[in-house]
Structures are given as C-alpha cells and as structure tokens.
Design goal:
Distance between the termini: 31 Å
Radius of gyration: 18 Å
Order of helices and strands: HHHHHHHHHHH
Helix content: 55-70%
C-alpha cells in the first residue's frame, strides 16, 4: 500500500516521486536514487565495522545494493523523505551486512527471500496472515512480507530461512554459535516481528519506525 502523495502544492516531494515510480516511471526512481545515494552511503558507513566498511568502499556497492533492493521491493509505503531514507538505508545496510558475513550473495537476495516468503505462507505460520487461496489481496500480502523480510535483521532472516529449509534449531545454533533453545526463542520472535512489520506495511505506517534514522544530516 503506497502512501498518498497528498494534494496540490502541499504534496511531499518524496511521496510524489514514489507514486510516480509505482506507476512505472523509472525517471522518478532514478531521481530518488541520485538525490539520496550519498545520504545512504553515509548512513551505511556509520554503522559498519572498519573491515566491512573498507570492503563496502570497493566500487559503488551501496548504489548496486540500492538498485537491487529497489527493484525487488518497489512499493515503499512511506510519506516523507526522512521515512524513505531511513527505510531504504536500513534495507541496504542489512543486505550489505549479510553479504559481508558470507550469509548470502547480493545477487541471491531476491530469489532467496522470495522462496522464504513462499515457505512461510505455505506453512501458514503466522496468525496475522490469511491463506493466500482465500485472500483476495494475496499478492499485496506477499509483497508486504517480502518488504518486511528486507527490514528484518540479517540473523533473523537467516534463522527463518534455515528453519524453513528444514534445519533443526540445534543445527542452526551450531552454525550461529548459539544453543538450540536460544535459536527457538529467536525464531519465534523473528516470525512475530515479521508479521508485525507486514501489518505496518499494509497499514502504511512502517515509515514511522525509521523517521528518526532518516532525519540524520548529510555526510
């Protein structure tokens, strides 16, 4: 669900660009990228360790990730520049952290997260999610879960992915250096958080989580 850009001269420029992009206007997407790329670079670099930061500076990785993530989840239900920056910054940061830790290659993110969403839905794992075959808005709900997964922390993504691939909590814990009980608790919390995020995306309120982060100054 995309936030309304408003009316007349009071329309927020970011909401207007997002609405144009949602209608298939690639020029609007490019304008957002050019306007906010430097801000997202600074946001990501402030939150990365030195080693990952040096790796991230090889080529224009932040721009590559932003383009991939924007292509994967083009419906961003936010209303202001600060909400947009905070949300896309968090998504870009998560993708880079996952790649730097060797959890997944950047080019694999869309396919792997799409498969994970399908597994979650097929398992009917969350009370907040209606069965897709009985849900007239199944496509929108799937898109909401995809975006929610991008926002979810990297380790939470991995725990859910491994679980739905058939790994036991003990096996996941061995990979992550945790015990099985801790993984079980983390998995339950991650799934609950994912459905909370999905509901906020559906309601168009997800951007409020990132308003403060997106208000950080340039550089």
């Amino acid at each position: 669900m995309l936030a309304s850009p408003g009316m007349g001269s009071q329309a927020d420029p970011t909401a207007v660009l997002l609405a144009r992009w949602a209608r298939g206007d690639d020029a609007a997407r490019n304008e957002l990228l050019v306007r906010d790329l430097q801000w997202v670079r600074a946001y990501v670099h402030r939150r990365l360790g030195d080693q990952v930061r040096r790796w991230c500076e090889t080529g224009d990785l932040v721009q590559e990730v932003m383009l991939r993530m924007m292509a994967y989840a083009p419906r961003f239900p936010v209303a202001t520049k600060h909400q947009w920056r905070g949300l896309v910054g968090r998504i870009t940061l998560n993708a880079i952290r996952g790649a730097a830790r060797g959890l997944r290659a950047l080019e694999d993110v869309p396919e792997r997260l799409t498969t994970l969403v399908e597994s979650i839905v097929g398992d009917h794992a969350g009370k907040a999610f209606a069965r897709p075959d009985a849900n007239a808005e199944a496509g929108e709900e799937l898109a909401n879960l995809r975006l929610g997964l991008l926002v979810l922390g990297v380790e939470d993504q991995l725990i859910l992915e491994l679980h739905f691939q058939g790994s036991t909590d003990a096996e996941i814990g061995e990979r992550l250096g945790r015990n099985g009980n801790a993984v079980r608790t983390r998995r339950a919390r991650a799934l609950n958080k994912l459905f909370e995020l999905s509901e906020e995306i559906r309601a168009g309120t997800i951007g409020r989580r990132f308003e403060g982060e997106g208000a950080a100054p340039e550089g």
